[in-house]
Amino acid sequence: MIVVGAGPTGLMLAAELRLGGAEVVVVERRAERSWESRGIGFTARAAEILQQRGLLERLENTEITRQGHFGGIPIDYGILEGSHFGVRGAPQYRIEEMLEERALELGASVRRGYEMTGLAATGDGVTVTVEGPDGRAEVAARYLVGCDGGHSTVRKLGGFGFPGSDATREMYLADVTGCDIRPRPIGELLPNGMVMAAPVEEDWFRIIVCENGNPPDKERRAGFGDVADAWQRLTGDSIHGGRARWVSSFTDATRQADAYRRGRVLLAGDAAHIHLPAGGQGLSIGVQDAVNLGWKLAATLRGHAPAGLLDTYHSERHPVGERVLRNTRAQGTLNLTGKPAEPLRTVMAELLALPAVARHLSGMVSGFDIRYEVGERRHPLAGGRMPDRELTLTDGGRERSASLLHTARGVLITADASGRTARRAAPWSDRVDVVRVTAFPAGPEEHGAATESVLVRPDGYIAWAAPGDSRLTEALERWFGPAAPSEEPRDAGHLASTR
Q1: What is the pLDDT of residues 303-362, one digit of tens each?
Q2: To bridge 458 with a disulfide, which of 80, 397, 408, 432 should be the other Cys (CB 3.0-4.6 Å)?
Q3: What residue ranges of the chain are covered by domains with CATH 3.40.30.120?
Q4: Letter string b/e over residues 26-54, b meaning 16 or more CB atoms within 10 A of that residue's CB
Q5: CATH 3.30.70.2450, the chain: domain bounds
Q6: CA gap 442, 296 in Å, rounded
Q7: Phi/psi class of residue 75: alpha, beta or left (left: φ > 0; alpha: ψ in -120 to 50)?
Q8: Tell me: the pLDDT tens digits for 60-85?
Q9: Widest pairwise Cα distance in the chain
């Protein structure tokens, strides 16, 4: 199994594949890890996923904030219980460092300085041409995943379409110090553009400068002088006396691969979709792609995946990516169009004052409203994410539901005192853990419905819930494959003793 690209998406996928028992090699053309901050945080759902893998606590000195925006218009994302705008203070290089350490701990191989230059399909896999310090080599693999960014070589050589819209504007991005900058954390709309400034680390600010009338130029290599000049033209303030740790640029180009899978080749992260960075959704959607794909691909490689499981990666994640592209384009219209957008911003601000609208947009940007098709929805939780709740185990212990997913296995949480539900899951004990609880704690997601048991997929989404659906066996077969010979279920006591 080969993953191309050692950014957050590729490294997260490598860790997920190893948790699922698959061998994986990550190839990365850069000889060493990038130390640019780029993304400085991620959304609430991405934070929840990292918590479910026990990784969130590895990122030190981060801040969780409820206060965010939609297109520069403030929203309190705490209007959704358990939600927030995201995690700040986590530069991308720290996220990559943490994810690479985790992938290596789990036994993944990360090969830097190797560039993929060729791809050929074979009957039962792919052959990848790789060039590196020791020359050119052809490597065979059963599957290949491109996590190699917006200019993905895997996407191009794999024959994927990448329709969408070209860039209409270019923005500068830099980490600066030594200059007097006041915070503008959600961006400030100015007569001829927009500027943003947020603290990254001590004495360092992340700034974004979008100047209207600055057309995209693929040949331009922006320097600090370009950024400082644009900042002064827009704000009237000079930052020329400071310095930049790094400078980059990005555009509002919006594109999405026409398919996330073609045979043995798959795409994830920016290789599958590019869009305007808004609300930390870029890195976040890539991590979510990886967690959706990882367990399905590992099950396929190990031979116990049910028919069609790998196809659900495209059917579930492509609509999510499409929606992110749509909301980031909308945010760009609100936040980057300048004064002509003021009437629209005024109307949107009035709408966002309505709790129903604020909840809708908070769910969209945070990723909390993602819901997959898992069959007939006879329970409000079915298809949605498993909220993190404190569970009281039948042996008297307590455990957070997020910690049950650290090993990336399926989990059946049941308050069925008869033990019937647990016994029905016993033939899947090699893939699904059973956790017996005294009661399932209620939350707003149930909309008043009672909950006795839930079957949670390795990616944290609920595949079945009772009462409301009696077809637990069908759900187990649909997501985890054929039953193995019956064994005693792994119960909460076993889980507590092994964690």
Answers
A1: 999 999 999 999 999 999 999 999 999 998 888 887 788 899 999 999 999 999 999 999
A2: 408
A3: 390-498
A4: bbbbeeebeebbbbbbbbbbbbbbbbbbe
A5: 170-251
A6: 29
A7: beta
A8: 888 888 888 898 898 999 888 878 88
A9: 73
- The CATH topology of domain 390-498 is Glutaredoxin (3.40.30)
Name the residue with tokens 């939600």.
Answer: 83
3-state secondary structure of 66: coil
Question: Beta-carbon neighbour count of residue 144 at 10 Å?
Answer: 25
CATH topology of domain 2-61+83-165+255-366: FAD/NAD(P)-binding domain (3.50.50)
Q: Answer for the pair 370, 415: CB distance below 8 angstroms, yes or no.
A: no
pLDDT digits (tens, 9 = 90+) for 355-400: 999 999 999 999 999 999 998 778 889 999 998 999 999 999 999 9
The reported pLDDT for the residue numbered 67 is 86
What distance in Å separates the CA atoms of residue 197 and residue 190, rounded to the nearest whole number? 14
Residue 358, token pair as written in the block = 């604020």
Percentage of residues of the chain with pLDDT beyond 90: 68
Secondary structure percentages of the chain, helix, strand, coil, to 5: 35, 25, 40
CA separation for the pair 150, 272 (Å, rounded): 8
Please name every residue paired with 26 in a beta bridge, in sequence order, or none if there are none.
3, 110
Burial classification of residue 126, based on how many CB atoms lie within 10 Å of its CB (0-12 exposed, 13-18 middle, 19 or more buried):
buried
Burial of 377 (0-12, 13-18, 19+ CB in 10 A): middle
State the number of CA atoms in the 13 A half-sphere of 79 facing the CB. 22
Is residue 106 classed as helix, strand or coil in its secondary structure? coil
What is the CATH number that goes with domain 170-251?
3.30.70.2450
Backbone torsions φ then ψ of 25, nearest 5 degrees? -120, 130
List the structure tokens of 450.
Answer: 């009672």
DSSP assignment, residue 427? G
How much is the average pLDDT of 177-190?
Answer: 86
Q: Dihedral sign for Cα 29, 33, 38, 44, please.
A: positive
Dihedral (CA of 463, 466, 469, 472) sign: positive
Reported pTM: 0.93
Q: What is the pLDDT of residue 335?
A: 85
Model confidence at 445: pLDDT above 80 = no
Look at residues 156, 159, 153, 138 and name the one whose alpha carbon lies nearest to residue 28. 153
What is the β-pairing status of strands 115-122 and 193-201? Answer: unpaired
Q: What is the pLDDT of residue 485?
A: 63
Give CA–CA dist 222/382, Å, rounded: 48
Are 162 and 154 in contact by the 8 Å Cβ rule? The answer is no
pLDDT in tens, 148-171: 999 999 999 999 999 999 998 888
Start-end of CATH 3.50.50.60 domains in the chain: 2-61+83-165+255-366
